[in-house]
Amino acid sequence: MNLNWFLLLFVCFIGQSSEEQRQADDVKIGAIFSFGTTNGKVAKIAMEAAVVDVNSDPTLLDGRKLALTLHDSNYSGFLGIIGALQFMETDTVAVIGPQSSVMAHVLSHLANELHVPLLSFTALDPTLSPLQYPYFIQTSPSDLFLMTAIADMISYFQYREVIAIFSDDDQGRNSITALGDKLVERRCKISYKAILPPEPMSTRDLIVAELLKVKSIESRVIILHTLSITGLRVFEVAQELGMMTSEYVWIATSWLSSVLDSTSVSTKAASSIQGALTLRPHTPDSQKKRAFVSRWNKLSNGSVGLNAYGLYAYDTVWMIAYAVKEFLDHGGKISYSNDSNLDSFAGETMNLAALSIFDGGKQLLSNILKTNMTGVSGPIAFKPDRSMYRPSFDILNVVGKGWLRQIGYWCNYSGLSVVPLESLYAKPANRSSSTQRLDQVIWPGQTKIRPRGWVFPDDGRPLRIGVPRRVGFRAFVSEKEGSGVVQGYCIDVFLAALKCLSYPVPHQFIIFGDGHKNPSYTQLVNMITAHEFDAAVGDITIVTNRTKVLDFSQPYIESGLVVVVHVKKMRSVAWAFLRPFTPLAWGVIAAFCLVVGTVVWILEHKFNDEFRGPPKKQVVTILWFSFSTIFGAPRENTVSTLGRIVLLIWLFVILIITSSYTASLTSFLTVQQLASSIQGIESLVTSNDAIGYQVGSFAENYLFEEVNIAKSRLVPLGSPEEYADALEQGRVAAVVDERPYVDQFLSTYCGFQKVGPEFTKSGWGFAFPRDSPLAIDMSTAILQLSENGELEKIHKKWLNRKVCGGQSSEADSEQLQLKSFWGLFLICGVTCCFALLVYFCCMLRQFKRHFPELTQRSTSTRTRISHSIRLKKFLSFVDEKAEISANRLKRKRMEMENLSTS
Length: 902
Description:
six-stranded mixed sheet, 32 helices, alpha/beta, Helix Hairpins, Rossmann fold
């Protein structure tokens, strides 16, 4: 009996020793999560399944088992720290978690000290830097990529401002900061940040108070970045407050897709989220994924559905297992050593000295970062910055009762697309705007029409639009006498632009000014920044100082400062008849007259008796013929064909020249000339003359601040009548004003003229508060008016473009330049040269017939010396009359015939 008891005790001892030895050989890993949350429940089931699958292969860890210990932090950061300390006391090689980024920032310091890798697929704060936390690894795409995807969506839908609602924790704040940075890159921004307490402190009353603030803001594009309980509560409150209508755009981060993938929400919650957009980490379809999904109901007993983070949880365990295998295969031993920094805590009640450093932690960390595997979530690898390889998201639209409908994909490689991502990776990266595309969205309110994304302030109150009450140039903007109704070119353009918008704009015009003088436009635009007006419409110039505090629409009319002066009739002078041509032009005309006369004389001299006689007579003939052609056909007749051709071309040139001279001289004798020496802004600056400007215009500040003209020289003028009186009476030497006003003034008043070039370039636009979305829409509308011709019709209706009778431009008074006629002179010159060439060729041929003995080639010295005689003979032949040459040739032929007969 005693022997049996002894044997039994021995067997139990041996078994217990074996169990203890087996447990000692286990590879211990820990997991810290709040297992009451959706992601916590899914992660627990997935990690336990992964451990079972790892341990089912005894060769994977060289006969060892993977031992997973779970610690429920239950939303408490304190309990999370306690759990981490317990893991560090029990020789844990790696810890999965924590679930929140708040705890990740804390526990990463512990992991750094004890060299225990910390892996999390839910703590995705973008600021968890590998430089600061080298032992912390995110095993799913960081929120930096999530926020980049959202920023791309905002840009794709052409929104410019968004409101961010987020939980006040590390991940919420830092992720929204990353979103703001990405939006700025796309010329968008976060206009308001609504901050909610983190779970579980976020109560319904706090949410109501914050959403009421959001409702009063113009922007209607809302980004919701919270945890699931708070997020669903926000949607329910928003629906009660009327914020789930077709005016709003709601984009929830990946928490919403995780909830809808894993749990069944209430009918109230399902109704409140309809039309929202959300994102889900993209996990490509594969045989492994399908096999795991088919096992899920059995693993979970139907308690919770599988979401993307469950797949990442499963793969994270396998990442650790493969890293440990690599570690063991290369001779690594799981051993721990005391941390000398904790020796001073030995014997204390907390016994922190029991914490030990994992000797192989650095190598295990390196093995994890070298992971290159395909898991249930797809290909898994890390870039040098430790970000996930090819981070990507599914873009989902909530329709029906909480049903998710996929409308596209986002990947850091190619942006937004409706093409499956796996096929995009085989092509070159292309993020051009033409390739960005998403399917049709069902927005809140069950509409397919994209919401405008903003509303007018104060819940639809009509816009208060300031309009200047002008006393001069009333065609641009004015008030009908005592009626309070405004009209004019600027008003018609504004109303036409409003008609181009896809939404109504309630507004009321508020007249600004006392009616006795033009109001200050600087004061008018400043009233927008003071929120007394919501916009300003009128002849408002877009200048630098105003664009610093306001937004302007696209200019609807070009403008710029010009100088206007008084003009008078030119006094008659003795030599006024010479003014039409420049001296060079006169000289060239005279030279060509002589050239043409000489050419015609050469061509006619042999055949025409009128071009023969004593030398003195021939010179007189050339001069007379040359200059008589200016006044008509010359008295002398031309008999040669070449002479007639040259004369015909020259008469045509003279016709053009004399016609131009007559027109120019007429202009010079009747044109109005400047009453002062002012030729433009440069001469105005160097003079000491008084300068007029329009009251209320930016011209005063420009002349004083930019051009440095003393204020004592500046004279305010309020109407076109004052312009005319001041210039005619000489109270001002010139008026500086914007081109549209000057054009209207010159079309009404004669005796005035623009001088010099336009020395500023600007335009008129409608003024709006800073970052007003209406400014962008109105700019688009103005471009549309310009393209369809409506803008030009309004211009013709209000603004008279005809120049005052007798008004002439500066160009009209300029002298005619030689360059205006060089083509004619070129034709005439070429004709003369051609005629001379043909003439001398004919003369040379005839000379050979008349004097063959002088034209035969010979190599004798005597012949060579007679070249001068031959030349004299040729010139004599050319000079003699054609009949004499013909008679001589006839006699020579008869002599030759007589010789031949004898």
